[in-house]
Every structure is written in structure tokens, then in C-alpha cells.
Amino acid sequence: MSWLNALAETSRSGLKVERKRLVPLVALRGAAGLALVVLLSLNLFGPGVAASSAFGAFSAAVATFQRSWRPRPLLALASGFSLALSTFLGYVCVVHLWIFVPLLMLWAFAAGMAWAAGPTAGIIAASNVSIVMVTVTLPGSVVSALGHAAVIAAGGLVQAGLVWLVPIRRWGAHRDALADALAAVADYARRLRQDPVADFDPEPLMEARKAAVLTPGQARRRPVELRGPRGVAERIRPVLASLADPGLGVPAEGPARERVRELLYAAGTVLDACARAVRRGQPVRVPAATKAVLRTPDTEELLSGPPLRAARRLRALLDDVRDTADPSGGTSSRVPDDARETAAHGMPAVTRTRTRAPLSQQAAGIALLLRLQLRRNSPVFRHGVRISVVAGVGYLLGSLLPLGHPYWAPLTSVMVMRPDFSQTYARAAGRFTGTLLGVTLASLVVRLAHPGTELLAWLAVLCGGLMYLLMRTGYVVAQFCVSMYVVFLLGMAGTDLEQTTLERIGLTLVGGLLAMLAYALYPAWEAPRLRGRLATALLAHTAYAAAVFRAYANPSEDRSAQVRKDLLAARDSRSEWQEAVEKARDEPVRQRGLSRGAADDADEALAQIARVAMLMEAHLPGRGSPPVPPADRLAQALDAASTRAARDLRDRTAPRWDAVRAALGNWDAAGTGEQAPPDRVARKGAGMLVEALEGFSTALAPPKRPQEAREREKTVRVPSVEEEEARRPRAG
């Protein structure tokens, strides 16, 4: 993509406004906390302290809206106290430019590196850099610095207290995550009716798994319907795929296929009912007709072999998910025998609570992440360097310009910069547009209405509440509300509104241009790293498949934990790969040997590899089943071949799977007599896996160019008539 097209695409993305489900009560709670802090500070300490306290309350409420599974009061407290520390340092050092600029750059670098811990940490850290710059407009001393830091911390305490005292839809985010996972599996079941090899996006299951990580206190208070359905949904998904797949016994058409379609539709209905029950905290209501479909004896007559075992297991798991998703205690307290059998092959029948690590272990983990990112080619490290340099240069540039308020330009840069190209450029366009509209409208209100200090405070609270309500609809809308909020807040503090309006518009443009220029000069493109990320995803997917084959080779050993671990690693790697592809498509650089079509085909091949392993996982043999020694040899060949394939992929050559094909050939040559069911399933899966691996290599093979084909045709000489006569055998 050219630079012109990339700028156009990212600008449109930054100006996009979407329809989202609004949460007015949560926005009202945040606005109430903001009003309480601002009006109380205004009446007790005056406009200056009120403006300072407003930043703490505003940012603390914004932190509670971030997509994080940590307790919301904790996010508000972390934001409030970190802002208080930043405020104190900014007030103490601002009088010495030679101290303040290095402090600002150090704080900005730390904020950039905070993205290693996740987007929520990065956003809160960026707010800290902003508060270092914004509060320097107020007169400062050590005593006043402590005072302003205290009121900002108080703003965070107020917002945290409101979240704790006025809970709105308690456990709502966790309920939505689990309900979305159940609904995604239900949709998958319905799609399998028409497309037996349909792909499944595991993102809802991944989000539900993240939501299931709780503190010990949360684990004790968690509603009963949030304790088990996720694990059952994880086990239902491969059973659905194995039941629908025509390669495992059910023909593409006929009575057996119709029976499978009925079972899949019934499974989708049950899972949807469980999703509604979890989301609303109500009993599970399944239609009687659906129950009849699941209990009919026709299944035993029409299905046999692996499909029949999958149908029995599906019925047991659906009973299990109904029991665990019902807040009233479920329709049955028994654990079906098939569910126990499934637990022996996969996750336990009751999902184990995943508690969050202690704070000391979390700090050690974050420190390790930061150390791993301290390298020149790391996108997070490059982001830290960019944001640090731009903050320092922007502040010095603003100080040299005869406009006053030197923080507007670096403030814009810090708030719009992200570790990737598309978000940085999109946010720059959205921030400038929203700022232009918001400042203009707020300035017109102030000039025409001449509101007093208290009315300006109320207008600022109103704009803050609108921002909380509409922030998820688009960045440009959020910046429109924030710009009006800042204008009213500074007007309450007594800042020259006319001067602020002109400076904010002009310096916001300068800050956005600085951010865009910094990324252009010191980028962290995803496109050149696509082959490396694809190689990592390939290794993770083949490791998952190899773990499943080893479970067939040694049924006496419990390998469910290793299979589960490799499955999660494969999911994470594919998610990172897909995210990298999406980022690379917006970048104005070539993808260096990996075209968009090749990336899409490779992603489909990865999905097929994961699907084959998932189908085999649905039929893992029990501990008393006979071993399948060829499966272990195939797993060893797959490990060795995938390591070489990853190296070939990074070297821009198509991977080869000769060793895996040879192991499959030896498997067929050694096969004698009638095979046991695990052997048949494993052999069928091995053949499907080789096809998926060949498809992966085909996706990455360089296309044959027409010119090269013509050159090859020229080199093929047509023999003459005399030569043909000479080649013919002569009689006698």
C-alpha cells in the first residue's frame, strides 16, 4: 500500500463512528463521581484546585472503562495514585527546564514500555505523562505540589468508592464474556449443518478464559453459573466438529447426515439458551422439541463408530452445560458417565478455578516482560523511544514558539501514539478533527453565554459524562467531548479562553504531525516480521497436533494437560499472527515475499491443521485402549519437519514435509489385520494432517511467472521427422 493510500485508510478509520451498545448507568456513575470531586473542590479550595482534582477523577473513571478483567476499583485506584505521583514530580521539576524535560522524556519512555504489560497499562501510563505536562500551567511549589497530588489521588479514591458502593450489573463483564463464548459455539454448531468443515474463531473462548482468572476474593463471590460452562463449551466444540465431519464416517447426504444436522441444530439451541441464562442470571429454558431431538433413539440406528460416540458425548456434554449454566442449581445433579469419560480425555468435569497470581509474582512477571522488550527491534521498545523523543522535542518546540502553553503539542503526541502504525495515524486524524470541532463549539458557548465559574464546572461535568457514554463509538467522538471538557475546565480555572482555543487547535495539529513524523522516521513495521510470526504459529500448531498423536501412541499416560497447553499456545500464536496481518495491511511498505493472498491461504492452512488435531482430540482413546505406535513415530517426524519448515519459511522457501509423508507411508506398510478404533481414527487424522501441511506449503510456494513459463517452452525442442523415424524400432 502506498503512503497516500495508507494515510487515506487510517484517516477514515480515525474518523469512523460506530453504533455500540451504550451503558448509561455506568456513564452516569462516572459523571457523578466527577461532579462530586469538582464541585466539592471548587467550594472548598477554589477553581485552581478544582481543575486539578478534575483531572484525577476524570482519568480514574476512564480507567474503569478499559477492557480489563481486573477489579474496577483497583483500576481507578491505580490511575488516581499514579497520576498523583506524576503531578507531584511535574510541579516540583517544572521550574527547572533542564530537569523537567529529562523527567518528561523518562516518564514518556516508561509509558511506552508499559504497553508490554497490555493496552490498559499503556493507556493509564500515557495519562500519567499527560498530567505531568498539563499541571505545569498552575503555579507550583513543594507544598502546592503535595496539595494538588492529594486532590488528584482523592479523585481516584472517589471513583473507586463509587464503583464499590454502587455496583451496576455486578459480574456483568464476566457474564457477557462467558455468554459470548457459549453463543459462538452455538453459532458454530448451526454453521456446521451447512458447511461440515466450517472454521471457528476461538477469540470468544479466549476472552472467556481471560475473564475466568480471578482473585481469591472474586473466586469466593463468583455466581455459581459462572463456574463451569466455559470448560464444557471448550469440550463441546471438538465434539461438534467430529460429528459433522464427513471424513469420520457420516456421508455427505442421506438419513445419517440429516440426523447429524438435527443434532447440530439442537446443540445450537441448547447453547443459546445457556448463553441467555448466563447473561441474565435466569434459569435455562430449553424447548421441549429440542429435548426430544436429543433423546430420540434414532441416533443409535442411523449412526455408528466415531459419529455415534460423538453423538453420545455431545448429549452428555449438553446436559452438563445446562446444569452448570443454570443459577437455580440445574436440572440434574448427576454427572453423566459420558461426561466423566470426556473428562478423562480432556478437561475435568468441573472447571478448576484459575486464580490471579499474587502481586509480587505479577510484578516479577511484568519486570521479565520489560527486560524481554529491551531490544532494538522490539515494537514496544521502539514505541518507548519514539514517545520519549517526541515528548521532549515537542515540549521544547512549544517553549520556543511565542504561543504559550507549550504542553499542547507533546500532549497530543503522547495521547495519539501507539506501538503500531494504523492506530497512531488514525488517532492523529481523529484527535485533530475532534479537537477542532469540540474547541470551536465550546468557545462559542463561552463567548455567547458568558457562564460563571459554577456553570462552567457543570458544563465540564456534562461533557465528561458524554465522553463516558460515547467513548466506545469512535475516537473522534471521544475527542470532541474531551476538548469541550478541557475548554470548560480551563475556563473555570481562569485561563484565557480565546488564547487557549487558538493554541490548542494549532499545537494539536503540530503534535499530531510530530507523532506521524516520528513513526515514519523510526517505524516498527509488522510486514517484514510476518514470516517470522507465521513460522511461530506453524510451530505451535504442529506441536498441538504432535501432542494429540502422542496421546494415541501412549493411552496409558495422561497427556490431557500437555494437549490443553499446546492447544492454548496454538490459539495465542494464531491470534497474534492474524493481528499482525491486519496491521501489515494498513502499512505503506511491501510485505517482502508474503503477499496478501499468500497470507490468507496460509491462515486457512493453519486453521485446517488445528481442525485436524481438534477432530482427533475429540476421540482420544481411554487409558485401557491399545496403543498406536506409528502415531508416536509420526509425531517425531512432525516435530523434526516443522522445525525445518519454520527455518525454510524464514528463509523465504516453501516448507517440505517429506519426513511426515514417509512416516505415513511406513504406517500404511506396517498395517496388518483389522485395526482397532483408535488406530483407524489416528490413521485417518494423519492423512488429513498431511493434506493440510501440503496445503500450507502450496500457499507459500512462489507463483510461476508467465515469462518463465514461456522461457521453459522455448527450451523444449520439437523433434524433427527424421529423428522420429530414427527412434522407431526397426523390424527384424
Automatic annotation (TrEMBL):
First and last residue of the signal peptide: none
Pfam families: FUSC_2
Start and end residues of each Integral membrane bound transporter domain: 394-517
Domain of life assignment: Bacteria
Region feature Disordered, mapped onto this chain: 321-356, 579-599, 697-732
Chief site of localization: membrane
Protein family membership: Belongs to the YccS/YhfK family.
Record's compositionally biased regions (Basic and acidic residues): 579-590, 705-716
Transmembrane domains' residue ranges: 22-42, 97-116, 123-140, 146-166, 385-408, 428-448, 455-471, 477-493, 505-522
Subcellular location: Cell membrane
UniProt xrefs under InterPro entries: Memb_transporter_dom (IPR049453)
Organism of origin: Streptomyces evansiae
Keywords assigned: Cell membrane, Membrane, Transmembrane, Transmembrane helix
Protein known as: FUSC family protein
Topology in the lipid bilayer: Multi-pass membrane protein
